[in-house]
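Trying the structure run again after the queue cleared.
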Amino acid sequence: MNYHDRTGESKLQQCGYIATIISYISYKNITVQFNDTNKTIKQCKYQNFKTGTVNNLSVAERCKNHNQKNNQTCKQNYIGQTFTASNGQKITIIEYIDTYHVTVQFEDGTIVKNRYYGNIKNGEVTNPNFTFEKYKTNNIISNRVGSSFINKYGEKITIIEYINYRNITVEIDDGINKTTKKTTTKLFDTKKIYSKNALAKSKIGETKLTTNGEKITIVEYKTANNLTVEFEDGYRKKTCYKLFCSGSVRHGSTQDNLHTVWKSSSGFTYEVIKYDNKQHVTIQFEDGTILNNQNMSAIRRGISHPNFQKPTGNYKTLFFKRTLKTSDNIYYNCSCSNCGFTGLLTANDMMSHRC
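Done. Tokens:
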């Protein structure tokens, strides 16, 4: 057989039928014929023929079968689903052809055909037989009043007044107090109604371990961005729920920050000698220089010595220029106007320089 002409080659395909090459133009363009039906499939790839993935159905036939299968699955999944229409009535899917052809039935028996599934899901379907007076005389409103459910916080929600689907009044009973609230039938049907204090009550007492192993407990909860946690030693700190969940809350007491040592960007080390709050911190450099009213965040990043805030300058009798920075220190090219010394010195070396 010619290497470039594989006409006559046969192979069993995964569909269960034997296919034979009757025309070979290139490895990307062959024509095969199935022996059982004599059906011809054109413009196949030889690689698909060798792996047995040539199908005896055309693309159109496969798409038709695929769509039929999908529609059967949709019917099984969607028929029987219930939503709330914009007028407050319940609607149920009773027939599903495709996404754009869905039939629904309202709770008063009215049937509406050929509606889009997305509109049905959002309650954007109109009942042609609906009027508010008819809705009222049919006692559907009276059926709504008195309906209740238990929300996820254990509160009992009961409709006590129904004006329309956008304006209902519910009573919230947490077992101790009863409060009322204006809401909509959509929130009622989806069970998303609860009192202002329900979330706070559920969060108080929740505990978490911080990333450094400290145990913290929520003792006060106002909003997700305003809560108070308590450490095991009794220290309390305001934070947000996101930091609480991630364990990123730090103790931050005065004793923790006092006498901590940091390194400046100019190469000096400094120590916290007074801590009033995070906006008013006093630090002292090695040479005795003191800076007041510093921010704790800036201290952690590194504060430059006031005499070394620029790359070049004068320190005592030394003229310096920042020359080299390593992982351990910063070196300055120095020259002394008094003794004539020149060379590389660190910030600490400059402090101890004597003529």
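The two ends are 98 Å apart (CA to CA). Worth checking whether this holds up in the mutant runs.
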